[in-house]
Amino acid sequence: MNTQDHISQAYNDELEEVRSKVLTMGGLVEDHFQGATKALLKGDTELASDIAKYDYKVNALEVEIDDDCTSLIARRQPTAGDLRNVFAVIKIVTDLERIGDESEKIASFVTELSVDTKSMTIYNSLKSMIKTAREILSAALDCYARLDAKQALEVAKLDEDLDSNFNDLKRTLITYLIEDVKNIEDFIRVMWCARSIERVGDHAKNICQYVVYVAHGNDIRHITDQKE
Amino acid sequence: MPNQDELELLQELGDTVGTPKLKEKVRMSCNHVDVFYNETAQAIFDVSVDLGKNQILAMIGPSGCGKSTLLRCLNRMNDTIDGCIVNGEITLDGEDIYNKTIDPVLLRANVGMVFQKPNPFPKSIYDNVAYGPRLHGLTKNASELDDLVEESLTKAGLWKETKDRLNKPGTGLSGGQQQRLCIARTIAVKPEVILMDEPTSALDPIATATIEELMYDLKSSYTIAVVTHSMQQAARISDRTAYFHLGRLVEVNNTDDVFTNPEHKLTENYITGRFG
C-alpha cells in the first residue's frame, strides 16, 4: 500500500511524513542495537555508556509518531490500506521502542561487566546470535520500507533460529553458572544480554507480521498458538 | 465517459467480487439487472445483489455510478421516467416486482422510500403520517388510526417531540425532525423494506446522528438499503456495503471487510480517496 495517489496531496504528505519518521526511528534503533551489541562483544564501556544515554531520542520519536497517527485518524479517517498502514505504524513504533529499551539494557549490562565476553567460552555463540539478530532487524526494517510481504514471511521465520541459538547459549551458561560460581554475576549479566538479543528478534518478527498485514490485510499473529 | 484506464479496468472487472448473493434470509433480490434511460444510454450493467432481512445495505460509489438508479428500481420509481427500461429480475420475498400483476402503488407501500431532502406534505404532522394508512385503508376507525400514528411517530423517535403539536404543520419542524416525520410516514404503511437516498445529506451532524441511530433501531423490523456519499456513514451504519462504478456493481462485502480490506482495487481506490 503506497502512501501516494490520494486526491488530497496534503493527505499524501501526511502519510509519507509518518512513514519517513518510522524509517528514521528504525534507523536509529538499528544503530543503537548495533552499538550496544558491538560494545558487548568488544567490552567497550565507553560506547555502551553513549548508547544508554541516547534512548530518549527513540522514545521521543515514538511519542511524536503516535501523535501523528492520532491526528491522521481524527482528521482523515483512513480506510482500507491506509487504515491498516496507520494501525501497523502504531504497533511497529511500539516494537521499535522496545528494541531501543533492549539495546539500552544490553548497554547498561556492558558497563557492569567485570570481565570481557571475549574471554568467555560462549563468546562465539553470542557473536553468532548477535549476527542473526542484526540481520533479522535490518531485514525487517527493509521489508517495511519496501512493504515486501513475501520477504517479510521469510524473515519472520529466521526468529526460530535465534530462539534456538538463545536456548543453546542458555544451557551452556547454566553449566558455567554451576561450575564457576565466582563469576556468577557476569554470567547472569550475559544471560540477560542474550535474552535481550532474543527479544529483539521477537520484535523484528512482529514488524514482519505487520508488513504482511499492511500489504494483504491478513493478521498472521499467533497462528501457531491457535493451532496448538 | 470513462477514460482509457477506467475502460481497461472495467474490461478486467468480470463478476462482482465478494458476496453479492446471500445464502439465507433474503428479502429482496436483483438478478442480472440492466437499466437503460433510452435505447443507447445504459445506466446499470448486469447487477445481481441480495438485500438481507433485518440488514442495512449501504450503496456507495462516485456520482453517476448507478447506485441511485438501482435504488429507484427497487420500488419501481423509475416507471415514472419516460424511456427507462429495466431488464432482468427484481424480487421481493421471491415475487417478481416487475410482474404485470403487481400494483406499483401497493409495491411502494411495501418498499418505502425516504429522500435526500425532507419532503413532508403541506399538512399537519398527524395527517402526514395518517395519509398512507388512509389511502391504503389500513385502519378501521379513528382510534386505530390514532394508535398507528402514535406507533409510527414513536418508532421514528418523534413522538415525544410532537405529541402536543400533532395538528401543527409538518413543514414547521426542523430539518432533522422533518426527515424523521418522513420516516414515520414511510413506516405507517407497514413496509418490509425502506429505501433511503442520501437521507442525511441535507442535515447537520446532530440530526444525522439521530437519523443514523434510528436506522440502527429500525433494522430489527425492516430491511434497509441506503445510498450515501458519506463513506463514514456507510461504515457506521451498514451491515453490508456495495460499491458501484460506472454502472457496474464492483464489490459487495461485509462492511468491516470493505473498510479494512476491500477485495477490489477500485473499491480500495474509492474509499481511500484516490479518485473522485
Please identify the oligomeric state: heterodimer
Spatial strand arrangement across the major sheet of chain B: 1-11-10-4-9-8-7
Q: Would you tell me the structural class of the helices and strands of chain A?
A: mainly alpha
Largest interface: A-B, 15 and 17 residues
Anisotropy-based shape of chain A? elongated
Which regions of chain A contain 5 or more consecutive residues with pLDDT less than 50? none
Beta-sheet strand percentage of chain A?
Answer: under 5%
Tell me the Rg of chain A in angstroms: 19 Å
Number of helices in the DSSP assignment of chain B: 11
Q: Main beta sheet of chain B, described?
A: 7 strands, mixed
Radius of gyration of chain B, in angstroms, nearest whole number: 19 Å
Give the beta-strand count of chain A: 0
> Helix content range of the residues of chain B, please?
25-40%
Number of helices of chain A: 8
Query: Low-confidence runs of chain B (pLDDT<50, min 5 residues)?
Result: none
Fraction of residues in β-strands of chain B = 15-25%
Series of secondary-structure elements of chain A, N-terminal to C-terminal:
HHHHHHHH
Provide key terms for this protein.
heterodimer; A: 228 residues; mainly alpha; 8 helices; 84% helix; B: alpha/beta; four-stranded antiparallel beta sheet
Structure commentary:
The complex is a heterodimer of chains A (228) and B (276). Chain A is mainly α. Helices cover 84% and strands 0% of the residues of chain A. In chain A, helix 1 (9-42) packs antiparallel against helix 3 (55-76) and helix 1 (9-42) runs parallel beside helix 4. The relative contact order of chain A is 0.14. The model of chain A has no long low-confidence stretch (mean pLDDT 91). Chain B is an alpha/beta fold and 276 residues long. Chain B is 37% helix and 24% strand. In chain B, the strands form two sheets. Chain B has a seven-stranded mixed β-sheet, with helices on both faces. In chain B, strands 3-2-5-6 form a four-stranded antiparallel β-sheet, covered by helices on one side. In chain B, strand 10 and strand 11 (248-254) form a beta hairpin. The longest helix of chain B has 14 residues, at 142-155. The two termini of chain B are 14 Å apart. Chain A binds chain B through residues 5-8, 11, 77-84, 216-217, and chain B through 231-232, 235, 258-262, 267-269, 271-276.
